[in-house]
């Protein structure tokens, strides 16, 4: 039962009220999964969970906000877009249970950042080494397109997550232009000296931004969506090289 003294999860300001006070990532994730601040996203994630894809018709979908994944002291963050309808929204773990996740984890594994070359369920034994998956938007959006308002509503969760990673954070791989654009105001608000004009996203783009706890290396990578991987815009070799570069900069991996 909802505590009447606590903010209403349906309130648009729920993320802004609840994220900053989370004492650690476990507390942040516990608050996050209750969030219902964006009505369009709530309706869509729950509809997907009710209707289900035929291949998963006997499964119970997570159909809630999907928290980050990885150790609390990770020096490397991998920043995506939002959970996939039948991937993270089904399994409850980012980049899990679909072709995009298998492509991503194959590259992370090849770079020494993941225990397994695939990510299929929350109990598959997957572990990340010195790396945390972070999402600017935590609910699956229709057509994989969050609105600017939904992105902004969700921002406090990512801001607090990166803040809690704290001084250990040394590098971030950003998967696609949406994540790159969503990250910049978070870094500015956290005291990073984001240059003007802002750095431009591109595959392999690398910029170093000074922050209150030291520099942060940002590396761009095309998003491992089926559109990008099927057209070879992003190949396994390209993704693996980005993650190896990021691992060297951050001192992450095995």
TrEMBL record:
GO terms (BP aspect)? base-excision repair
Q: Name one GO molecular function term.
A: DNA-deoxyinosine glycosylase activity
Q: Which InterPro entries match?
A: UDG_Type-4/5 (IPR051536), UdgB-like (IPR044147), Uracil-DNA_glycosylase-like (IPR005122), Uracil-DNA_glycosylase-like_sf (IPR036895)
Q: What UniProt keywords are attached to this protein's entry?
A: 4Fe-4S, DNA damage, DNA repair, Hydrolase, Iron, Iron-sulfur, Metal-binding
All residue ranges annotated as the Uracil-DNA glycosylase-like domain in the record:
67-243
Q: Which family does it belong to?
A: Belongs to the uracil-DNA glycosylase (UDG) superfamily. Type 5 (UDGb) family.
Q: What is this protein called?
A: Type-5 uracil-DNA glycosylase
Source species, please?
Streptomyces gougerotii
């Amino acid at each position: 039962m909802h505590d009447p003294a606590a903010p209403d999860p349906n309130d648009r300001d729920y993320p802004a009220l609840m994220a900053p006070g989370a004492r650690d990532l476990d507390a942040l994730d516990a608050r996050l999964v209750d969030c219902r601040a964006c009505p369009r996203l709530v309706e869509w994630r729950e509809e997907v969970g009710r209707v289900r894809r035929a291949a998963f018709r006997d499964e119970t979908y997570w159909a809630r906000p999907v928290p980050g994944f990885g150790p609390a002291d990770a020096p490397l963050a991998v920043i995506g877009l939002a959970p996939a309808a039948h991937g993270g929204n089904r399994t409850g773990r980012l980049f899990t249970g679909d072709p995009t996740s298998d492509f991503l984890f194959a590259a992370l594994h090849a770079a020494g950042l993941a225990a397994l070359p695939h990510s299929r369920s929350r109990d598959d034994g997957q572990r990340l080494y010195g790396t945390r998956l972070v999402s600017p938007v935590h609910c699956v959006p229709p057509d994989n397109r969050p609105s600017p308002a939904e992105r902004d509503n969700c921002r406090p969760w990512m801001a607090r997550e990166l803040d809690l990673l704290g001084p250990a954070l040394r590098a971030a791989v950003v998967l696609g232009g949406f994540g790159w654009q969503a990250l910049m105001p978070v870094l500015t608000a956290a005291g990073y000296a984001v240059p003007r004009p802002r750095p431009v996203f591109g595959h392999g783009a690398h910029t170093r931004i000074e922050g209150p706890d030291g520099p942060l290396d940002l590396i761009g990578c095309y998003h491992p969506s089926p559109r990008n991987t099927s057209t070879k815009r992003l190949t396994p070799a390209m993704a693996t090289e980005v993650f190896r570069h990021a691992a060297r900069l951050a001192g992450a991996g095995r």
